[in-house]
Design goal:
single chain, 130 residues, mainly alpha, 68% helix, 0% strand, globular
Length: 130
């Protein structure tokens, strides 16, 4: 487990460039899909949600951090597993991660059956969701 944590820490350094995040529509859309799914989850992602999350996590054109977030959300069963929590913690600590992504990671890390109304509103605002 320690090796995974060290690897994640190294991997996450620089995976989020604010300039590239702001300019890349594909990244923006992926993050909006993830945030929308987190808002909708009740205990665990639906099969349809998992299909979307697997597409995102398997898209090598997206930054590693975005793919890790999608994978962690896909694995939620009432709450994130230990590896998902560690990934979200690393993302929150990553100096290059934008604040919106750090907020998304914090919400995922603390997810317990469903996101709170406040967390849902926050995600909708941060990721410009309807």
């Amino acid at each position: 487990m320690e090796i995974i944590r060290k690897t994640l820490a190294i991997t996450l350094i620089g995976v989020f460039s604010q300039a590239s995040m702001a300019q890349n529509q594909e990244v923006t859309e992926a993050l909006q899909e993830i945030a929308s799914i987190v808002i909708s989850i009740n205990h665990f992602p639906s099969d349809e949600n998992k299909t979307v999350l697997e597409r995102i996590s398997g898209n090598n054109n997206l930054p590693q951090g975005v793919r890790l977030i999608a994978s962690s959300v896909s694995d939620i069963q009432h709450s994130p597993n230990e590896q998902g929590k560690q990934v979200m913690s690393q993302i929150q600590a990553a100096a290059g991660a934008p604040d919106a992504i750090k907020s998304l990671a914090a919400i995922i890390a603390s997810f317990n059956h469903t996101a709170s109304d406040e967390e849902k509103a926050s995600l909708a605002q941060l990721f410009q969701l309807p």
